[in-house]
Amino acid sequence: MNGGPVAMDYTVQVQLLSGEVQDIHSVPSSASVAEIFQRLGYRQNEKSHGSWVKRSLLLKDRVLQSREVLSDLDIPPPPCKVELQLLCHARCVERVADDFWEIDRMDRMDEVRPMVMSFAFCGPSGSGKSSLLKAYTMRRADAIGLSFMRVHLKVDEVLVRVYLWDQMNTKDQVSHTALSQHCFRKKQAIFVVFDLSDQSSFHKATEFFSAAYENEIHTKLLIGNKGDLEERQVSFQDAQQLAHAEGFSYFETSALNADALADAVTFAVLDSLERPRRERNDRAPKAGATDGRCSVQ
């Protein structure tokens, strides 16, 4: 007589350092730490109650890295219960005035050397990304086929200058191919913007995902714009599901309220700041994996 199917899922219990249980989920052994965060409904960097926090998962005293997979940890095979601890760390993030003379003064101060990042914005025609960027930055500098703007953020006493490159959709797009590709080259993050009130805009947005893969852009965001319109055609669930399937983070915005885009840009800055550290940790040998607690049910 054949037995039933072998369970391949772990029961992951997430709790605070105080011991209070936050969540319990059934998670496949192939799931990464980043995918566990998705199942919990958390972002690793997120605005909560008006302040930015960084969330980490700990297997006892060891911080797990985003790419680590449950099956690679030194724990018994499923089915079993894995207890993880959720650590929240406050981040201090503030927007610095973009006044030209103030920026020039900062550039000339030896003690203030801003870290420079470049983010690419793209998406179907009519997605409203240019209006969205203009509402956020309140300034723009036009070029043929491209626009770029810049903002300054202070993150935990680190000054960050962010260039926001807008790939403009022109009628003669072919003649600007090389210029358009400059929008994606050597960028730390990509924002693919679509119109929430237009189903075809949502489908066309996927055509821009290849730019992230071809240019090895690690921080990827899908932006549902025009969230203030009543005639919405794309649900939050559908957009978020697509984003997660493609390795993107999902945000919804409106040119009438640039705060949501400010949160998305801050998220990208925080993710880009932490990526070098994460990549070093990913390359390092995994140590202390036996510190975790696991009990077979």
Report mean pLDDT, rounded to a whole number.
Answer: 76
Structural class designation? alpha/beta
Spatial shape: globular
Name the helicity range. Answer: 25-40%
How would you describe what is shown here?
This protein has 297 residues and is an alpha/beta fold. Mean pLDDT is 76; it is low at 140-145, 170-176 and 286-297. It folds into 2 domains: 9-91, Phosphatidylinositol 3-kinase Catalytic Subunit, Chain A, domain 1 (Ubiquitin-like (UB roll), Roll), CATH 3.10.20; 93-279, P-loop containing nucleotide triphosphate hydrolases (Rossmann fold, 3-Layer(aba) Sandwich). The longest helix has 25 residues, at 259-283. It has helices spanning 33-40, 100-108, 129-137, 177-182, 199-205, 209-214, 236-245, 259-283, and strands spanning 9-16, 21-28, 45-48, 51-59, 62-63, 81-91, 93-96, 115-122, 141-142, 146-155, 158-167, 189-195, 219-225, 249-252, 293-295. A hairpin with a 2-residue loop joins strand 3 (45-48) and strand 4 (51-59). The protein has 8 helices and 15 strands. The strands form 2 sheets. Strands 7, 8, 9, 10, 11, 12, 13 and 14 form an 8-stranded mixed β-sheet that branches. Strands 1, 2, 3, 4, 5, 6 and 15 form a 7-stranded mixed β-sheet that branches.
